[in-house]
Amino acid sequence: MGASQSAFTEQELDDYQTLTYLTKKEILHVHHRFASLNETAVRLDKNAKLPFNTIMELPELKVNPFKDQIMKVFSSSGDGMTFEDFLDMMSVFSDNAPKPVKVEYAFRIYDFDGDDMISSADLREVISRLTGEGNGLSEEQMQQLIDNILEEADLDDDDALSFAEFEHVISKAPDFVSSFRIRL
Amino acid sequence: MKKNKVRVSFSDLDTPPDLGANRKAGPNKPGMVFLPVRERQKLTDIQTAIDHKTPHLAQRKKVMQREKLMAGPVKNLHGVASVRFENKKRLRKLKEAWNSFKYTMEPWGHALRKIEGHHGAGVVSYFVFLRYLLLVNVCLFLLTMFIWVPEVIFSSNDYTSGSTAATCTASYNVNISSDGFTLILDFFQGTGWLEQTMVFYGYYSGNGLSGSSYNLSLAYMLVCICCLISSLILMGRNVARSFRDSILNEGDGTTEFCNKVFGTWDYTLTDESSCEIKHKSIRYELLSDMHEQEFLREREKRLQKRSKKCKLYTMRIVINIFICLVLGAAAYCIYYVISFSTEYASDHSDASGTWNELLLLLVQFLPSITITVLNALLPILFEKVVVGEEYTAAFVIKITLIRTVFLRLASLAVLIITLYTECWETYVGQQFYKLIITDFLVVIFKTLLVELPRRLLYDKCSCGLMQKVGPPEFDIPANVLDLVYTQCLYWLALTFAPLTPSFSVVKSILTFYLKMLSALKACPPAEKPARASRTNHFFMIILLIAFFLCSVPVGFVFYNMSPSQGCGPFRTYSKMYYALTTTVDSWPSTAESIYELITSPAITGTVIIFLILMIYYCSTLANAHKDMSDLFREQLVMEGRDKQFLLVKLREASGESKPLPRQPHKKPPPGMPTLNTVNESTPTKATRTSTNVSSNSGPPTYNGTTNQNGNVARGQPTSPHMPADDW
C-alpha cells in the first residue's frame, strides 16, 4: 500500500473518487491490485496499459467465463487496459455501484456481437459459457432454454432482447445485484 | 426521468469549450447563467458524468476536466448560497470520510472475501447475518451494563447465605462445593458458585443499593425492555431493507429462467475448482428447472382427473396431520423430560460421588439435550415425508423450513410454559444458560469432531462407503436457523440471566471462526446453489417472527408474574412492573398525570386505530403502485408493437419485399451502444426533444472521442432503416 500511496496526488485521488463509486482507500487498493499484475510496468507508469492477457491474471477474471467480453467493454482503447479502465471496471463491480449501472454494463457484456440487442445467438453463447465446456446440454434442451428465456423477456416478439427488455427482466431477477460484483 | 436529465446535461457538454465562462447552459435550460445556480449546475453535471453515462473512466475524466476549464474564473458565492454550498461540500467530505472509515473498519471483511471467493455469495450471506447478530448482541451487552455496573460499584449483597436462597424457592437448595470437578460441573450447569454471581437474576439486590439513589429494580426492568426495543429497531431496519429489495426484485415466477441465466454467475468467485462446480451447478439448475416445468405440466394433466386430485389432497392432509402429531409428541416429550429432570434434581440434589454427580449432570442437561436432539432429527423426517406431497421443488424447501422453524419455536414454548408454571427466576435463567451452553457445544462438536474428520476421511480414504457418504455440506438454511434459534435463547434468557449478552458476544465471535473453519476447510462448495437474495429476506422474517414470540413471555413475566420474595431486584414488589408504577407515583403530579394520560385507554386506543388506518393507507398505496407497474408493463409491450409496426411501414416504404431480419449484424460503433439504447428506450417527449437538440448542437465532440473509428453514435441513425430517435 505504501508504495502506491505516493503514486497519486491528493488531487488525482479526489478526481477518481468523484468519478467512481469507490473511496480513496479502495482506489489505492485497486491500484495495488493493478500493480500486482505487472509490477515493473506499473512502476514506470502508474497508468500503464497492460495487455488483456495480463489483466486476465486477476483471480476473479481468470475464472470468469465472460472475461473477454468484460475486457472488451471496459477497455477504452480496445487493445489493453490502463489503470483507469481497470478502476472503472472495479468501480462498476463494486458494492456501491447502483443497479442501473450494473445492468447497463451487464447488457454490454452479454451482447456478444455488439448489435445493441441480445439475440438468440447471444443467448446461446451466454448459456454455453455458463454451463461450461462440454456442457451436456442437448441441442433440443438448449433451444428450449432459449425459447423459455425469450418467452419470459421478449415482450415485443422480435426474438431478441433490447436494453429496455433486458432492464425490465433484470429488475425482476433477484440474484443479479448480489452476483454481479467483485469484492475489493 | 433520470435518463432524461442525463441527456440534457450531455447536450451541454457537447458545446465547444470556447464559449467559456459565458456559456449558456443549453438551449432547453434558459436562465441558468447566474452564478449560484451555475455552480450547482456544474456539480450536477459532474455528477451526471459520473453517473456512468460515459462509458470509460478516461473519458469521464476528460469531461470533468473540461467542466473545470469551462467553469472559468468563478466568482465567490455570497450569503446563504455560499453557506449552503460550503455545507454541501463539508457534508460530502464527511460522507466520504465515513465511507472510507467503514471500509477500513469493516469487521471480518477479509475473511468474508475469502469465503466468498471459495463459496460464492450464498454462503457469505450466512456470515453476514452472523456478523449482524453479533452487532445486535453487542448493543444488548452495552445496555445490560446499566444493570451490572452499578451492582458491581454499589454492591451491598445480602445473597450470600444458603438460607436466603432457600426462601427463593421451596424445592431448591444451593450447595456450594469447593472441589475442582464440581466447580467445572457447576460452570456448565450454572449452579453452585455460578448461581450466586451476577450471571443470574437472584444475585441482584433490590432498589436499596447502599449509598446511591440508583433504582436498580427500575433499571433492570427498563434495560430488559430497552434491549427488546433496540433489537426490534436494529432488526426493523434490516428487515425493511431486505423487504424492499425483495419486493423490488420480486420474481413473480415469470422470469425464472432469465434470473438463472443472467443472475447466477457469481463474479466474486476466484477459485478454479469452485468455478468448475459453479458451472456444474448452473447446468444442474437449468436442467432441473426444465424438468420442473415438465413435472408441473404433467401434474396438471394428471390432476384433471378428479380421482387423482382427490388422492393427492388426501395424501397432503394425512401428512399434515402426521406432522402435527409428531410435533405434539415432541412437545409432550420435552414437557415430560423437564418435569422429570426437575423432580430428579430436587430429589437428588445432595448427590455425592463422581458417578452420581455425573448422572445428576446428565439429568439436569436432559431437557437441553432432548430439545437439541429433536431439533436435529425431526427435520430429517420432514424432508422424507414431504416427497409424498408432490409440491414443486422451491415450495418443498420452504415448507420444510417452516415446519422446522415451527418445531424449534414450539419446543422453546413448551420449555417456557413448563418452567414458568414452577417459576423461580434463577432456575429459569439456569435452564436457558444450559441450553445456550449445549447449543454452543453442539457447534464445536459438529465442526471439530464431525465435519473436519468427515472431510479428511473423504479426501484420504477412497473406499466405497466414504465416497458414498461424501464430504459434509454447508447447509445454509439449517445454519441460519441455528443462529435464529440461539438468538431466541438470548432474548429469552436476558430477563433472568442479564449477563447473557456478554456470553453471546463471545459465542458469536467463536462461532464465526468455527463456521469459517467449517466453510473453508471442511465443506466443499455445494452443487446445489443457494440464493443469497431469497435466503436473506426469508431469514430476516423468521428472525422477526421469532422475536415477537420471544417478547411475549418476557412481557408476561413483567406484567403478570409475582417475583420471589427472597432474592432478585424485584423482591419488594408483588408484581414486577410495580417497579415502574411506584417510580411514577413519586414523580411530581403533572408528570404523573401525563404518564397516566399516555397510558390511558383513550390514547392507546386512538394510536392503535391510527396505526391501523396507516396500514390500510399503505396497502392501498401498494395496490395502486402494483396496478401502475402492470400498466407500464403493458406500455412496454405496446411500445414494442409500435416499433414492429413502424418497421413494417418502413419496409413497405423502402420497397423491400422480403422480411427484414432483425438488425442484421450491422455493427454500430463499439463505443457507446448502450447510450443509444437507453435513450431509445425512454420515448418520452422530453427525451426526444433533447435528443434532437443534442444532435443539432454543433459537432458532438464527446462522441468523437468515444468512437475510435470515427463514427458518430448519437444523433444519427444506427441503421439506414431505423432512425434512432423515433423508436
UniProtKB/TrEMBL annotation, chain A:
One Gene Ontology term of the molecular function aspect: calcium ion binding
Designated name of the protein: EF-hand domain-containing protein
EF-hand domain ranges (all copies): 98-133, 141-176
PROSITE patterns, A to Z: EF_HAND_1, EF_HAND_2
SMART domains documented for this protein: EFh (SM00054)
UniProt source species: Batillaria attramentaria
Keywords annotated in UniProt: Calcium, Magnesium, Metal-binding, Repeat
A Pfam family it matches: EF-hand_7
Entry-linked Gene3D superfamilies: EF-hand
SUPFAM superfamilies cross-referenced by the UniProt entry: EF-hand
Automatic annotation (TrEMBL), chain B:
Entry's localization field: Membrane
Bias kind Polar residues: ranges: 674-719
UniProt topology in membrane: Multi-pass membrane protein
Record-linked InterPro entries: TMC (IPR038900), TMC_dom (IPR012496)
Any Pfam family: TMC
Region (Disordered): 1-30, 653-727
GO terms under cellular component: membrane
This protein's name: TMC domain-containing protein
Stretches assigned to the TMC domain: 423-533
UniProtKB keywords: Membrane, Transmembrane, Transmembrane helix
Family affiliation: Belongs to the TMC family.
